[in-house]
Please model this.
Amino acid sequence: MHSQPRQNEVTARIAGHRSEAHSGVLTQCMNGVRMKFQNNGSIYGQGEPVEHIYEVVRGAVRTVKILPDGRRQIGGFYFAGELFGLDDRNEHSFSAEAMVKSEVFVVKRKSLINLAQHNGELAERLLSVTAHEIRRQQNHALMLVKTAEERLGSFLLEIAGRISIGDSVELPMSRQDIADYLGVTIETISRTFTILTSRSVIRLPNARAVILPDRSKLSREFHYD
Amino acid sequence: MHSQPRQNEVTARIAGHRSEAHSGVLTQCMNGVRMKFQNNGSIYGQGEPVEHIYEVVRGAVRTVKILPDGRRQIGGFYFAGELFGLDDRNEHSFSAEAMVKSEVFVVKRKSLINLAQHNGELAERLLSVTAHEIRRQQNHALMLVKTAEERLGSFLLEIAGRISIGDSVELPMSRQDIADYLGVTIETISRTFTILTSRSVIRLPNARAVILPDRSKLSREFHYD
DNA sequence: CGTATTCTTGAGCGACTTCAAGTATGGTGG
DNA sequence: CCACCATACTTGAAGTCGCTCAAGAATACG
Model:
Protein backbone atom coordinates (compact mmCIF):
# COMPACT_ATOMS: atom_id res chain seq x y z
CA MET A 1 0.00 0.00 0.00
CA HIS A 2 2.62 2.55 1.03
CA SER A 3 5.75 1.05 -0.44
CA GLN A 4 9.18 2.51 -0.97
CA PRO A 5 9.48 5.10 -3.70
CA ARG A 6 12.80 5.51 -5.42
CA GLN A 7 15.12 8.47 -5.28
CA ASN A 8 14.22 10.16 -8.55
CA GLU A 9 15.67 13.05 -10.44
CA VAL A 10 13.37 15.68 -8.94
CA THR A 11 13.73 14.74 -5.29
CA ALA A 12 17.48 14.45 -5.76
CA ARG A 13 17.53 18.07 -6.87
CA ILE A 14 15.53 19.08 -3.78
CA ALA A 15 17.90 17.32 -1.46
CA GLY A 16 20.66 19.17 -3.25
CA HIS A 17 19.34 22.71 -3.50
CA ARG A 18 19.66 23.24 0.22
CA SER A 19 22.80 21.24 0.59
CA GLU A 20 24.59 24.15 2.23
CA ALA A 21 24.58 23.31 5.95
CA HIS A 22 21.62 25.20 7.41
CA SER A 23 22.32 26.69 10.83
CA GLY A 24 19.30 26.66 13.11
CA VAL A 25 18.54 27.04 16.80
CA LEU A 26 20.28 23.86 17.87
CA THR A 27 23.33 23.67 15.64
CA GLN A 28 24.38 27.12 16.81
CA CYS A 29 24.62 26.46 20.50
CA MET A 30 24.61 22.76 21.30
CA ASN A 31 26.89 19.85 20.85
CA GLY A 32 25.11 16.92 19.29
CA VAL A 33 25.39 14.42 16.50
CA ARG A 34 24.84 14.84 12.77
CA MET A 35 23.07 11.88 11.25
CA LYS A 36 22.43 11.05 7.62
CA PHE A 37 19.36 9.27 6.36
CA GLN A 38 18.59 7.69 3.02
CA ASN A 39 15.41 8.36 1.11
CA ASN A 40 12.63 6.92 3.30
CA GLY A 41 15.03 6.27 6.15
CA SER A 42 13.43 5.95 9.59
CA ILE A 43 14.59 8.57 12.09
CA TYR A 44 12.45 7.35 14.97
CA GLY A 45 9.41 5.13 15.30
CA GLN A 46 5.92 5.58 16.67
CA GLY A 47 5.97 4.33 20.28
CA GLU A 48 9.72 4.70 20.81
CA PRO A 49 10.89 6.63 23.90
CA VAL A 50 11.41 10.36 23.44
CA GLU A 51 15.08 10.96 24.14
CA HIS A 52 16.18 13.42 21.48
CA ILE A 53 15.17 16.54 19.66
CA TYR A 54 15.95 16.92 15.98
CA GLU A 55 16.79 19.71 13.56
CA VAL A 56 16.78 19.27 9.80
CA VAL A 57 20.14 20.35 8.41
CA ARG A 58 19.52 19.29 4.83
CA GLY A 59 16.67 17.47 3.11
CA ALA A 60 13.06 16.96 4.16
CA VAL A 61 11.30 14.95 6.87
CA ARG A 62 7.72 13.81 7.44
CA THR A 63 6.08 12.63 10.67
CA VAL A 64 3.68 9.73 10.24
CA LYS A 65 1.09 8.02 12.36
CA ILE A 66 -0.44 4.67 11.50
CA LEU A 67 -3.82 4.17 13.14
CA PRO A 68 -4.85 0.75 14.46
CA ASP A 69 -7.14 0.24 11.45
CA GLY A 70 -4.27 0.87 9.03
CA ARG A 71 -5.11 4.44 8.07
CA ARG A 72 -2.07 6.65 7.68
CA GLN A 73 -1.88 10.26 8.82
CA ILE A 74 0.94 12.72 8.18
CA GLY A 75 1.47 15.08 11.13
CA GLY A 76 3.77 17.51 9.39
CA PHE A 77 6.60 18.16 6.96
CA TYR A 78 9.94 19.62 8.10
CA PHE A 79 12.63 21.31 6.03
CA ALA A 80 16.14 22.69 6.58
CA GLY A 81 16.42 24.71 9.78
CA GLU A 82 13.20 23.35 11.31
CA LEU A 83 12.86 21.37 14.56
CA PHE A 84 10.85 18.21 15.04
CA GLY A 85 10.40 15.52 17.68
CA LEU A 86 8.94 17.94 20.25
CA ASP A 87 6.75 15.40 22.04
CA ASP A 88 5.48 16.07 25.54
CA ARG A 89 5.15 12.42 26.45
CA ASN A 90 7.67 9.68 27.00
CA GLU A 91 6.71 7.94 23.78
CA HIS A 92 6.60 9.33 20.26
CA SER A 93 3.04 9.43 18.99
CA PHE A 94 4.29 9.79 15.41
CA SER A 95 7.26 8.27 13.64
CA ALA A 96 9.66 10.42 11.60
CA GLU A 97 11.03 9.55 8.18
CA ALA A 98 13.35 11.24 5.70
CA MET A 99 11.51 11.97 2.44
CA VAL A 100 14.75 12.47 0.53
CA LYS A 101 18.40 11.92 1.40
CA SER A 102 18.68 14.09 4.51
CA GLU A 103 20.97 15.23 7.26
CA VAL A 104 19.64 15.76 10.77
CA PHE A 105 21.23 17.31 13.85
CA VAL A 106 20.35 15.34 16.97
CA VAL A 107 20.62 16.55 20.58
CA LYS A 108 19.66 14.91 23.84
CA ARG A 109 16.35 16.22 25.08
CA LYS A 110 17.59 16.37 28.68
CA SER A 111 20.71 18.26 27.71
CA LEU A 112 18.65 20.77 25.80
CA ILE A 113 16.24 21.31 28.69
CA ASN A 114 19.14 21.61 31.12
CA LEU A 115 20.95 24.09 28.94
CA ALA A 116 17.77 26.12 28.45
CA GLN A 117 17.37 26.35 32.22
CA HIS A 118 20.63 28.27 32.46
CA ASN A 119 20.48 30.03 29.12
CA GLY A 120 17.58 32.43 28.97
CA GLU A 121 18.05 33.28 25.33
CA LEU A 122 17.92 29.63 24.32
CA ALA A 123 14.82 29.12 26.47
CA GLU A 124 13.11 31.99 24.71
CA ARG A 125 14.00 30.71 21.26
CA LEU A 126 12.76 27.25 22.17
CA LEU A 127 9.51 28.72 23.38
CA SER A 128 9.22 30.66 20.14
CA VAL A 129 9.85 27.53 18.08
CA THR A 130 7.20 25.55 19.97
CA ALA A 131 4.71 28.42 19.69
CA HIS A 132 5.37 28.44 15.97
CA GLU A 133 4.73 24.72 15.83
CA ILE A 134 1.41 25.23 17.60
CA ARG A 135 0.41 27.73 14.94
CA ARG A 136 1.39 25.31 12.20
CA GLN A 137 -0.71 22.55 13.75
CA GLN A 138 -3.64 24.98 14.02
CA ASN A 139 -3.26 25.78 10.35
CA HIS A 140 -3.17 22.08 9.60
CA ALA A 141 -6.45 21.62 11.46
CA LEU A 142 -7.84 24.59 9.56
CA MET A 143 -6.97 23.00 6.21
CA LEU A 144 -8.87 19.86 7.14
CA VAL A 145 -12.25 21.56 7.33
CA LYS A 146 -12.23 22.83 3.75
CA THR A 147 -13.00 21.38 0.32
CA ALA A 148 -10.37 19.34 -1.50
CA GLU A 149 -9.51 22.27 -3.76
CA GLU A 150 -9.02 24.62 -0.83
CA ARG A 151 -6.99 22.04 1.08
CA LEU A 152 -4.58 21.52 -1.79
CA GLY A 153 -4.44 25.25 -2.50
CA SER A 154 -3.51 26.20 1.03
CA PHE A 155 -1.14 23.27 1.25
CA LEU A 156 0.74 24.45 -1.84
CA LEU A 157 0.81 27.99 -0.45
CA GLU A 158 2.25 26.79 2.84
CA ILE A 159 4.92 24.65 1.22
CA ALA A 160 5.76 27.43 -1.26
CA GLY A 161 6.23 29.79 1.67
CA ARG A 162 8.89 27.46 3.00
CA ILE A 163 10.77 25.96 0.06
CA SER A 164 9.90 27.81 -3.15
CA ILE A 165 12.56 29.11 -5.51
CA GLY A 166 10.96 32.03 -7.24
CA ASP A 167 7.45 30.95 -8.21
CA SER A 168 8.24 27.25 -8.44
CA VAL A 169 8.19 24.52 -5.82
CA GLU A 170 9.67 21.07 -6.07
CA LEU A 171 7.68 18.75 -3.87
CA PRO A 172 9.73 16.26 -1.89
CA MET A 173 6.58 14.33 -0.95
CA SER A 174 4.48 11.91 -2.95
CA ARG A 175 0.79 12.30 -3.80
CA GLN A 176 0.10 9.72 -1.11
CA ASP A 177 1.91 11.87 1.48
CA ILE A 178 -0.11 14.91 0.45
CA ALA A 179 -3.32 12.89 0.57
CA ASP A 180 -2.53 11.57 4.06
CA TYR A 181 -1.64 15.08 5.23
CA LEU A 182 -4.84 16.61 3.85
CA GLY A 183 -7.18 13.79 4.85
CA VAL A 184 -8.40 12.91 1.36
CA THR A 185 -7.63 10.07 -1.02
CA ILE A 186 -4.76 10.04 -3.48
CA GLU A 187 -7.29 10.01 -6.34
CA THR A 188 -8.86 13.22 -5.07
CA ILE A 189 -5.42 14.84 -4.83
CA SER A 190 -4.65 13.84 -8.38
CA ARG A 191 -7.99 15.08 -9.72
CA THR A 192 -7.60 18.33 -7.81
CA PHE A 193 -4.14 18.93 -9.26
CA THR A 194 -5.74 18.50 -12.66
CA ILE A 195 -8.52 20.95 -11.85
CA LEU A 196 -6.11 23.60 -10.53
CA THR A 197 -4.01 23.18 -13.65
CA SER A 198 -6.98 23.49 -15.99
CA ARG A 199 -8.00 26.64 -14.12
CA SER A 200 -4.43 27.93 -14.65
CA VAL A 201 -4.04 28.44 -10.92
CA ILE A 202 -0.90 26.29 -11.09
CA ARG A 203 1.28 24.66 -13.72
CA LEU A 204 2.69 21.15 -13.44
CA PRO A 205 5.86 20.70 -15.53
CA ASN A 206 5.98 17.26 -13.98
CA ALA A 207 4.31 15.51 -11.07
CA ARG A 208 6.81 16.76 -8.50
CA ALA A 209 7.24 20.34 -9.75
CA VAL A 210 4.58 22.99 -9.24
CA ILE A 211 4.59 26.56 -10.49
CA LEU A 212 2.45 29.14 -8.71
CA PRO A 213 2.19 32.07 -11.12
CA ASP A 214 0.17 34.35 -8.83
CA ARG A 215 0.60 33.53 -5.19
CA SER A 216 -1.25 36.57 -3.86
CA LYS A 217 -4.31 35.68 -5.93
CA LEU A 218 -4.07 32.16 -4.54
CA SER A 219 -3.87 33.54 -1.00
CA ARG A 220 -7.05 35.47 -1.56
CA GLU A 221 -8.91 32.52 -3.03
CA PHE A 222 -7.79 29.98 -0.44
CA HIS A 223 -7.25 32.54 2.33
CA TYR A 224 -4.35 30.67 3.82
CA ASP A 225 -3.44 32.35 7.09
CA MET B 1 -26.19 32.68 12.62
CA HIS B 2 -24.21 32.15 15.82
CA SER B 3 -26.10 34.23 18.31
CA GLN B 4 -25.84 34.49 22.05
CA PRO B 5 -27.08 31.51 24.03
CA ARG B 6 -28.31 32.05 27.54
CA GLN B 7 -26.76 30.83 30.74
CA ASN B 8 -28.81 27.73 31.42
CA GLU B 9 -29.11 25.44 34.38
CA VAL B 10 -26.56 22.89 33.16
CA THR B 11 -23.77 25.28 32.22
CA ALA B 12 -24.31 27.09 35.48
CA ARG B 13 -23.55 23.86 37.28
CA ILE B 14 -20.37 23.42 35.24
CA ALA B 15 -19.15 26.87 36.04
CA GLY B 16 -19.81 25.97 39.62
CA HIS B 17 -18.38 22.52 40.01
CA ARG B 18 -14.84 23.78 39.65
CA SER B 19 -15.43 26.95 41.53
CA GLU B 20 -12.56 26.23 43.89
CA ALA B 21 -9.68 28.41 42.68
CA HIS B 22 -7.55 26.15 40.49
CA SER B 23 -3.82 26.73 40.91
CA GLY B 24 -1.87 26.29 37.69
CA VAL B 25 1.55 27.15 36.32
CA LEU B 26 1.01 30.89 36.32
CA THR B 27 -1.01 31.57 39.45
CA GLN B 28 1.66 29.87 41.52
CA CYS B 29 4.59 32.00 40.57
CA MET B 30 3.54 35.20 38.88
CA ASN B 31 1.80 38.36 39.77
CA GLY B 32 -0.97 39.16 37.40
CA VAL B 33 -4.62 40.08 37.27
CA ARG B 34 -7.69 37.97 37.84
CA MET B 35 -10.46 38.80 35.42
CA LYS B 36 -14.05 37.67 35.37
CA PHE B 37 -16.06 37.06 32.22
CA GLN B 38 -19.73 36.54 31.68
CA ASN B 39 -21.16 33.73 29.59
CA ASN B 40 -19.94 34.46 26.02
CA GLY B 41 -17.73 37.28 27.20
CA SER B 42 -14.87 38.18 24.87
CA ILE B 43 -11.39 37.72 26.39
CA TYR B 44 -9.47 38.88 23.34
CA GLY B 45 -10.26 39.30 19.67
CA GLN B 46 -8.90 37.89 16.44
CA GLY B 47 -6.31 40.36 15.12
CA GLU B 48 -5.62 42.06 18.44
CA PRO B 49 -1.98 42.38 19.54
CA VAL B 50 -0.61 39.52 21.65
CA GLU B 51 0.33 41.08 24.97
CA HIS B 52 -0.83 38.58 27.57
CA ILE B 53 -0.97 34.91 28.37
CA TYR B 54 -4.02 33.48 30.09
CA GLU B 55 -4.79 30.70 32.52
CA VAL B 56 -8.31 29.49 33.23
CA VAL B 57 -8.97 29.65 36.96
CA ARG B 58 -12.63 28.70 36.83
CA GLY B 59 -15.04 28.09 33.96
CA ALA B 60 -14.42 27.20 30.32
CA VAL B 61 -13.02 29.06 27.32
CA ARG B 62 -13.09 28.50 23.55
CA THR B 63 -10.84 29.97 20.87
CA VAL B 64 -12.63 30.93 17.66
CA LYS B 65 -11.60 31.93 14.17
CA ILE B 66 -13.96 33.46 11.65
CA LEU B 67 -12.80 32.90 8.07
CA PRO B 68 -13.26 35.61 5.45
CA ASP B 69 -16.17 33.68 3.92
CA GLY B 70 -17.97 33.57 7.27
CA ARG B 71 -17.16 30.01 8.24
CA ARG B 72 -16.42 29.57 11.92
CA GLN B 73 -13.72 27.31 13.29
CA ILE B 74 -13.06 26.47 16.94
CA GLY B 75 -9.36 26.08 17.70
CA GLY B 76 -9.69 24.56 21.12
CA PHE B 77 -11.47 24.39 24.46
CA TYR B 78 -9.74 25.29 27.72
CA PHE B 79 -10.72 24.39 31.29
CA ALA B 80 -9.53 25.19 34.81
CA GLY B 81 -5.74 25.07 35.13
CA GLU B 82 -5.10 25.24 31.37
CA LEU B 83 -3.18 27.96 29.51
CA PHE B 84 -4.28 29.67 26.32
CA GLY B 85 -3.24 32.63 24.19
CA LEU B 86 0.15 31.15 23.31
CA ASP B 87 0.49 32.82 19.92
CA ASP B 88 3.87 33.12 18.24
CA ARG B 89 2.92 36.18 16.25
CA ASN B 90 2.16 39.72 17.24
CA GLU B 91 -1.52 39.31 16.44
CA HIS B 92 -3.96 36.75 17.73
CA SER B 93 -5.07 34.45 14.92
CA PHE B 94 -8.04 33.31 17.02
CA SER B 95 -10.27 35.14 19.43
CA ALA B 96 -11.02 33.78 22.90
CA GLU B 97 -14.44 33.69 24.57
CA ALA B 98 -15.77 32.44 27.86
CA MET B 99 -18.33 29.66 27.32
CA VAL B 100 -19.71 29.99 30.83
CA LYS B 101 -19.16 32.49 33.62
CA SER B 102 -15.39 32.23 34.02
CA GLU B 103 -12.41 33.57 35.88
CA VAL B 104 -9.09 33.97 34.10
CA PHE B 105 -5.62 34.79 35.41
CA VAL B 106 -3.82 37.17 33.08
CA VAL B 107 -0.07 37.85 32.97
CA LYS B 108 2.00 40.04 30.68
CA ARG B 109 3.67 37.96 28.00
CA LYS B 110 6.92 39.91 28.32
CA SER B 111 7.01 39.51 32.09
CA LEU B 112 6.49 35.79 31.75
CA ILE B 113 9.25 35.42 29.16
CA ASN B 114 11.58 37.55 31.27
CA LEU B 115 10.85 35.59 34.39
CA ALA B 116 11.34 32.30 32.54
CA GLN B 117 14.76 33.48 31.40
CA HIS B 118 15.92 33.63 35.00
CA ASN B 119 13.81 30.82 36.39
CA GLY B 120 14.80 27.52 34.85
CA GLU B 121 11.99 25.59 36.45
CA LEU B 122 9.36 27.94 35.08
CA ALA B 123 10.97 27.76 31.64
CA GLU B 124 10.78 23.99 31.72
CA ARG B 125 7.14 23.99 32.78
CA LEU B 126 6.27 26.46 30.08
CA LEU B 127 7.99 24.28 27.51
CA SER B 128 6.06 21.32 28.81
CA VAL B 129 2.76 23.20 28.55
CA THR B 130 3.46 24.25 24.97
CA ALA B 131 4.56 20.72 24.01
CA HIS B 132 1.29 19.50 25.47
CA GLU B 133 -0.61 22.04 23.41
CA ILE B 134 1.16 20.80 20.27
CA ARG B 135 -0.02 17.28 21.05
CA ARG B 136 -3.56 18.51 21.54
CA GLN B 137 -3.53 20.32 18.22
CA GLN B 138 -2.19 17.17 16.55
CA ASN B 139 -5.03 15.20 18.08
CA HIS B 140 -7.45 17.81 16.82
CA ALA B 141 -6.08 17.39 13.30
CA LEU B 142 -6.35 13.64 13.74
CA MET B 143 -10.04 13.92 14.62
CA LEU B 144 -10.74 15.86 11.44
CA VAL B 145 -9.81 13.03 9.10
CA LYS B 146 -12.36 10.60 10.47
CA THR B 147 -16.06 9.93 10.01
CA ALA B 148 -18.59 12.01 11.92
CA GLU B 149 -19.17 9.19 14.39
CA GLU B 150 -15.46 8.80 15.10
CA ARG B 151 -15.00 12.55 15.40
CA LEU B 152 -17.72 12.90 17.99
CA GLY B 153 -16.56 9.74 19.78
CA SER B 154 -12.99 10.91 20.17
CA PHE B 155 -14.17 14.41 21.03
CA LEU B 156 -16.29 13.07 23.89
CA LEU B 157 -13.38 10.93 25.07
CA GLU B 158 -11.05 13.92 25.07
CA ILE B 159 -13.46 16.15 26.95
CA ALA B 160 -14.29 13.35 29.39
CA GLY B 161 -10.58 12.94 30.09
CA ARG B 162 -10.50 16.55 31.17
CA ILE B 163 -13.77 17.38 32.92
CA SER B 164 -15.70 14.18 33.64
CA ILE B 165 -17.12 13.46 37.07
CA GLY B 166 -17.27 9.70 37.27
CA ASP B 167 -18.67 8.49 33.95
CA SER B 168 -20.63 11.65 33.18
CA VAL B 169 -19.64 14.85 31.43
CA GLU B 170 -21.47 18.13 31.39
CA LEU B 171 -20.68 19.91 28.17
CA PRO B 172 -20.11 23.65 28.51
CA MET B 173 -20.27 24.08 24.73
CA SER B 174 -23.22 24.15 22.35
CA ARG B 175 -23.84 21.78 19.46
CA GLN B 176 -22.69 24.59 17.18
CA ASP B 177 -19.37 24.82 19.03
CA ILE B 178 -18.85 21.07 18.74
CA ALA B 179 -19.76 21.19 15.04
CA ASP B 180 -17.30 24.02 14.39
CA TYR B 181 -14.60 22.20 16.34
CA LEU B 182 -15.11 18.93 14.46
CA GLY B 183 -15.61 20.44 11.01
CA VAL B 184 -19.14 19.14 10.42
CA THR B 185 -22.57 20.74 10.51
CA ILE B 186 -24.71 21.07 13.58
CA GLU B 187 -27.26 18.72 12.00
CA THR B 188 -24.63 16.01 11.62
CA ILE B 189 -23.59 16.46 15.26
CA SER B 190 -27.18 16.11 16.37
CA ARG B 191 -27.81 13.04 14.23
CA THR B 192 -24.57 11.46 15.43
CA PHE B 193 -25.51 12.01 19.08
CA THR B 194 -28.74 10.18 18.30
CA ILE B 195 -26.89 7.30 16.63
CA LEU B 196 -24.41 6.91 19.53
CA THR B 197 -27.33 6.92 21.94
CA SER B 198 -29.28 4.30 19.98
CA ARG B 199 -26.14 2.16 19.91
CA SER B 200 -25.95 2.58 23.72
CA VAL B 201 -22.43 3.93 23.41
CA ILE B 202 -23.55 7.00 25.33
CA ARG B 203 -26.61 8.21 27.22
CA LEU B 204 -28.02 11.71 26.97
CA PRO B 205 -30.03 12.69 30.08
CA ASN B 206 -30.29 16.09 28.43
CA ALA B 207 -28.60 17.89 25.57
CA ARG B 208 -25.71 19.15 27.70
CA ALA B 209 -25.09 16.04 29.81
CA VAL B 210 -23.43 12.92 28.42
CA ILE B 211 -22.83 9.61 30.17
CA LEU B 212 -20.06 7.35 28.90
CA PRO B 213 -20.79 3.95 30.45
CA ASP B 214 -17.70 2.17 29.05
CA ARG B 215 -14.91 4.53 28.24
CA SER B 216 -12.31 1.83 27.53
CA LYS B 217 -14.60 0.25 24.95
CA LEU B 218 -15.03 3.70 23.39
CA SER B 219 -11.26 4.17 23.30
CA ARG B 220 -10.90 0.92 21.41
CA GLU B 221 -13.60 1.78 18.90
CA PHE B 222 -12.54 5.35 18.27
CA HIS B 223 -8.89 4.78 19.14
CA TYR B 224 -8.43 8.22 20.56
CA ASP B 225 -4.75 8.85 21.19
C1' DC C 1 -47.57 30.86 29.92
C1' DG C 2 -45.52 32.70 25.67
C1' DT C 3 -41.61 33.38 22.92
C1' DA C 4 -36.86 33.03 21.48
C1' DT C 5 -33.33 29.82 20.96
C1' DT C 6 -31.36 25.38 20.67
C1' DC C 7 -31.69 20.90 19.33
C1' DT C 8 -33.61 17.15 16.46
C1' DT C 9 -35.40 14.93 12.35
C1' DG C 10 -36.48 14.40 7.30
C1' DA C 11 -35.66 14.48 2.09
C1' DG C 12 -32.86 15.49 -1.82
C1' DC C 13 -28.37 16.63 -3.53
C1' DG C 14 -23.37 16.99 -4.15
C1' DA C 15 -18.48 16.07 -3.06
C1' DC C 16 -15.48 12.73 -2.06
C1' DT C 17 -14.63 7.63 -1.80
C1' DT C 18 -14.18 3.15 -3.69
C1' DC C 19 -13.09 0.09 -7.14
C1' DA C 20 -11.05 -0.48 -11.46
C1' DA C 21 -8.32 0.56 -15.47
C1' DG C 22 -5.06 2.99 -17.95
C1' DT C 23 -0.74 6.10 -18.57
C1' DA C 24 3.76 7.91 -17.38
C1' DT C 25 8.19 7.58 -15.27
C1' DG C 26 12.36 5.95 -13.09
C1' DG C 27 15.39 2.06 -12.48
C1' DT C 28 17.49 -2.38 -14.03
C1' DG C 29 19.56 -5.90 -16.72
C1' DG C 30 20.62 -7.45 -21.22
C1' DC D 1 21.07 2.14 -25.25
C1' DC D 2 16.75 -0.14 -25.14
C1' DA D 3 13.26 -3.36 -23.43
C1' DC D 4 11.13 -4.48 -19.40
C1' DC D 5 9.28 -4.08 -14.82
C1' DA D 6 7.87 -1.78 -10.70
C1' DT D 7 5.93 2.11 -8.92
C1' DA D 8 3.66 6.51 -9.09
C1' DC D 9 0.27 9.11 -11.04
C1' DT D 10 -4.10 9.93 -13.64
C1' DT D 11 -8.79 9.11 -15.15
C1' DG D 12 -13.51 6.95 -15.16
C1' DA D 13 -18.01 5.13 -13.14
C1' DA D 14 -20.86 4.00 -9.34
C1' DG D 15 -21.80 4.32 -4.38
C1' DT D 16 -21.99 6.71 0.16
C1' DC D 17 -21.57 10.07 3.74
C1' DG D 18 -22.33 14.44 5.09
C1' DC D 19 -24.44 18.99 3.48
C1' DT D 20 -28.34 22.00 2.43
C1' DC D 21 -32.85 23.35 2.96
C1' DA D 22 -36.87 22.87 5.61
C1' DA D 23 -39.74 21.94 9.35
C1' DG D 24 -40.83 20.30 13.95
C1' DA D 25 -39.77 19.35 19.14
C1' DA D 26 -37.66 20.62 23.41
C1' DT D 27 -35.76 23.85 26.55
C1' DA D 28 -34.67 28.30 28.87
C1' DC D 29 -36.18 32.57 30.55
C1' DG D 30 -39.05 36.74 30.78
Q: What stands out?
A: Chain B touches chain A at residues 65, 67-69, 71, 73, 75, 86-89, 93-94, 113, 116-118, 120-121, 123-124, 126-128, 130-135, 137-138, 140-142, 144-145, 183, 223, 225 (CB under 8 Å). Residues 165 and 172 of chain B are 14 Å apart (CA to CA). The first helix of chain B runs from residue 9 to 17. DSSP finds eight helices and eleven strands in chain B.
